[in-house]
Amino acid sequence: MTYRNRLALLIMLDTLIVGTAIFIAAWIAYPYTSSVYHADAIMVSAVALVLFHHLFAFIYKLYNKVWAYASVGELVAIVKAVTLSILATTVLQFFVNDFDLYKRALIVTWMLHIIFIGGSRFIWRIFRDRFISVNSGQKRTLIVGAGAAGAMIARQLKNEQNNAELSPVAFVDDDLSKQKMQLYNLPVEGTVQDIPEIVDRFGIEHIVIAIPSLKNGELNEIVSKCNVTNVKVQMLPKIEDLMSGKVSVNTLKNVEVEDVLGRDTVELDINTITENVTGNTVMVTGAGGSIGSEICRQLMKFLPKKIVLVGHGEFSIYTIDMELRNIYSDSETEIVPVIGDVQDRKRIFEIVEEHSPAIIYHAAAHKHVPLMEYNPHEAVKNNVVGTRNVSEAADTFGVNTFVLVSTDKAVKPTNVMGATKRLAEMVVQDMAQRSNTKFVAVRFGNVLGSRGSVIPLFKKQIEAGGPVTVTHPDMTRYFMTIPEASRLVIQAGTLAQGGEIFVLDMGEPIKIVDLARNLIKLSGYTEEEMPIKFSGIRPGEKMYEELLDEKEVHPGAVYEKIYVGRTKEVHLDVVLDLIYKLQEYNTVELKDALMGIVYGERDVVVKES
């Protein structure tokens, strides 16, 4: 129906309702007085009430409401329009009827007016909700959480019955006071523990977790119960994403492994970070990578004067540059994308000299363990030579703080990647002993969702129909989310005195096979449908990782989830010897030389020219 036709229909309906209401009210108020129907005042009042009603209906936009979604707000508008119409009619009747009023009739008219007008509007919503059939293709949905968010989801889905994919059936909530209660005509059927039984009893095909303030341990418990049922599970975004404006409360998202395995958010020392970052120039190498790009996102919140995005990959730097410009379009921070290779010493010195950063976050590195086993020379050039170039540039041009992003694989390394990152730490520790710049390293384990992590690989394997490959059933790793790791790297930089190796608390190590099973479940499959295949340990891999050597352990956290290791003696001459003679080594010799340096066998690296 067009707006004009709809408007005409509503005006005709309201004219009939209002004109009839005042005569019915007169009959109710004065049942034994027939003369009242012939009084001029009543006739004038009826016409006036109709006109005043239309006037206030336009003022309060009663003819512009979508009544299929009517709620308390629309009811308030009706009460205001009707009340003002009655008041205006009362004033008119007072003068027309020689200062006399049909008080009872006006009061009854006011009540009937609200009932008839409100009823005529809300009847359509009731009819739509109760009698219009639900699309047979909709999935019967259980909502976890009967709070404000759950109510919002239920209302939205019920209002969009013909367009929504989901049809709400019931709630579950651990609040005992809500048991056996109803919300939008949907029953609260039990608690989280009852989810499997409720799914069977109601034929549930979909579950929505509608508690955005859940902590990770609580979410893990709910997801575990949901996974028993083999139905798809979605959730509202987390409260921090809602507050940051990344997503809206109406957005449902799939439950990711990061949601289940992530930890509670660390409260940062905002004042200290602000003192170090706000109004200063910061530089991030590897700014297009998983960790580097997230460090950039986190830094932008603290309003640096300038942020220099340094990276070798053109597209990755373009991507993070465009993202930051779009999100922080109103920010006064100058964003400078720079294409440069950390192996290019002259270029790195030019960049640092030109921009004079106060802080450098060095995240550029080769991190893929098996690939670096086949390409050890590239690992040394990027991870060791690149770190030396950036660190010496920082020293030369008076950078205040240099933060190296390191890895748990630098502890007792069995692979090229870990060994080169340990050498990078040695370079930084040596610089700390002879420079006014504060040099520190921050060491942590795997980050969920990074380009080189197992999560993207598992997802691709699941999308391809499986199998999901895991190297060994007992292999464990530490995991942390990218935002948490990046925040702690920034926080660690503010704690720097020079020469420390900060270690991030990664929690308990997780079995890779458990990670794979979780992802299979969250993707809506069983292990029978999506089998796990054990492929064997790859070159350079360890069964487990460590964050600190026993000789480095320093008890007590210097900040929440941040520990500092004891500094070991560093002999940089052997590292420099390796760099100078790098091209003289073949692959096997270079691997032996790397391990020799790491484990203190200094004679191993001496090679005759």
UniProtKB/TrEMBL annotation:
Residues 282-564 form the Polysaccharide biosynthesis protein CapD-like domain. The chain crosses the membrane at residues 7-30, 42-63, 75-96, 102-124. Keywords: Membrane, Transmembrane, Transmembrane helix. Belongs to the polysaccharide synthase family. This is NDP-sugar epimerase, includes UDP-GlcNAc-inverting 4,6-dehydratase FlaA1 and capsular polysaccharide biosynthesis protein EpsC. It comes from Sediminibacillus halophilus.
